[in-house]
Amino acid sequence: MRKPKVLIAGCGDVGTALGLLLIDQGYEVYGLRRTINQLPDSIHAIKGDLIDKSSLSALADLPVLDYLVYSAAGGGRGAAAYQGTYIDGFSNVMQSLTHAPKHTFFTSSTSVYGQSNGEWVDETSPTEPNSETGKIMVAAEQQVLTQRNSTVVRFSGIYGPGRDHLIRTVNEGIIAPPEPVHYSNRIHRDDCAGVLAHLIGLVEQGQAIEPIYLASDDAPTPIHEVMKWLAQQRGIEIKGYKEIRRGGSKRCRNEKLKRLSYQLKAPSFVDGYVEPQSHR
Fold first, then answer.
1. How would you classify the pairing of strands 183-184 and 221-222?
2. Mean pLDDT, the chain, as a whole number?
């Protein structure tokens, strides 16, 4: 029986977790990244740099792909890095493939939203970010959605193994102040992989999916409350407050995703920080 073939371009932390999930489900997975020594043997490694088209010649030799998952991480925080990674890099991959994939997935972020007063946002909300990087991400989404059979998945703040900035801050006894209220939204790394695998599975079963999904957990929460809880769990005395601005203060609504019957492994930060469901 033929195995569906998937290329994960930018096969980092989320991409590797996704690849292992898909392999367990019977897919053949290719992983493209700059350094391939970190990839598990079960993923076919392809060495290449997304922003250097000349390094992507091996893509032309791939068999016809069923799915492309473009899951790149920005090479920096500036506009130039975002332009290279999310716009130029995607274009480089598409131009390097001999055949267009049956369906393309692109991992975006909630930085496309400019809302900052605690508003609820979903897939239909205006995408009018204030930052240059957010504007580039909006343009990147638009570029992807011009492709036939394409889906953008907007992840909120990803946390999980190796993503411990918040915990390190709390360990120093510093948390965000209670006022002004700053809502935060998050999704566990394993749910990022799970959502993508679920969507691919639906397409594989012949079901129609939407062009855009917002992927976040069930519990938008003020960042003060998250950090206060983390401190209590670790028995850490709070020594002071420091404002932590991570994107606009908004609340992400995930109803469209939930209607697809995806079951979150970490419905809230309490579940994710206490019992991360690692696939590794």
1. antiparallel
2. 94
